[in-house]
Amino acid sequence: MKILFSPIGMTDPISQNTLYEGSLLNICRFYEPDKIYLYMSKEVMELHKKDDRYVKCLNRVYKYLKKDFEYEIIDRSGLEEVQVFDFFYKEYRDILYKIHEKNPHAEILLNVSSGTPAMKSALFVLCALFNFSMTPIQVSSPQKRSNTRPEENTLEDFLGIIDEIMTVPEVYGDRTEIALKENLNFELSKDIIKNHMRKYNYSAAFEVAQMTREFLSERSYYLIAAAFCRNNLDREGVLENLKLAGDKFDFYDSHELFLVEYILYLSVNIKRNMLLEFIRGISPVLDLLFKRAFEAESGINLDNYLTNKKGKISWNKKKLLSDKNGEKILKVLNESYNGFTFKNTASSDNYLKLMESDDFGISERLITKKAEKLRDIEKDGRNKAAHQIVSIDDNFLKRETGYNSEEILNRIIDFVQDIKLGIKNEHWNSYEIMNEKIINSLN
Q: Number of structural domains, the chain?
């Protein structure tokens, strides 16, 4: 459905000077709107009441178009100050919102050539700023010149001119053109989205995308949604939105390698200077890394001795007592903690105690020394951040751990490479590659 909103000017419906159709009729001839809102100020309403010229001329045009149309007159008989921009900005804003709410899927056309300069300017600005699509249409004056004050012609003269125009339309021609090729609000929104992407602020980028969704391509919208889900560690959301986008990221979706996605999530926290979240987020990474390191070095699958209840992974005493490796693990845990309790979650510290024990023969290996250094960083940085109200920045981390955030992250990545998870080096830049893909889709 096409809807035209049109202020009525003094060259509508027919210019008294040139005897050409005004902007209203020229737009209707070539765009054939299904419904027309006619905005009439005091002077225009007086002419309308005199001979119903605007509606009768529209009826004559649509008779030749062999099409029905609806119209609604917006009566502003009390409006005499027709040069006040602020009034028309607020007035048209409210009217156009209501039109859109009633017809959310309609194509809204705006006649930005009829009416006073204040009316035209208000429509231009609103078209640029609204968060839904509207098409502003300009109509050039015949022979590219302004209209001067006309002599009086009758309604019958107007109808006769319309008959001539509709009989030989090629002579009178299409004087319309789209005033703005793209909505300025969308252009601004695209720049804002790009800026948020470059700053790794996926929540803000997705919020803007939702506000301007009807301007975005399906691919761009769903790529942004996938990036938002990725940064929230929502694997299913990533896959669903990538499918809708018909695209892909360099994204590990297996449960085992999702660890890498979590490390990348931590790297984004560094880029956004969210160092409290970064240092607090280290513990789950070390839990998984130290477990994998012990398994890789000892050849023992620790899952044989663990229980996963609703996401809580803990040691299972019965399983530990089921074979010699389990008994050795239980012995180390009991000795390390002066009486081990099975209520606690299995942790990086548990796995590190196994690596450091002579029972498994890996205590002097380089991977164990690297694990010890990471565990020290976790204790010195995270524990103080978790139990005190402190400002966390790189100065704090350097002072407490001996390393800044980038250095800590690089140690974690180095550890991942050592335990050979099969991660490509370029994958550590996959967020940058993803951002560039999304930014390019908006161009």
A: 3
pLDDT in tens, 197-251: 999 999 999 999 998 888 889 999 999 999 999 999 998 999 999 999 999 887 6
CB-facing half-sphere around the CA of 166: CA atoms within 13 A: 19
Within a domain: 401: yes
> How many Cα atoms occupy the beta-carbon half-sphere of 287 within 13 Å?
13
Contact 14, 25 (CB under 8 A): yes
> Model's pTM, two decimal places?
0.64
Residue 63 falls inside a structural domain: yes
- Asked, for residue 428, whether it belongs to a domain, the answer is no
Residue 257 belongs to some domain of the structure: no
- Domain check: are 229 and 337 in the same one? no
Q: What digits encode the pLDDT tens for the residues 61-116?
A: 999 999 999 999 999 988 877 777 788 889 999 999 999 999 999 999 999 989 88
Domain hosting residue 397, numbered range: 262-423
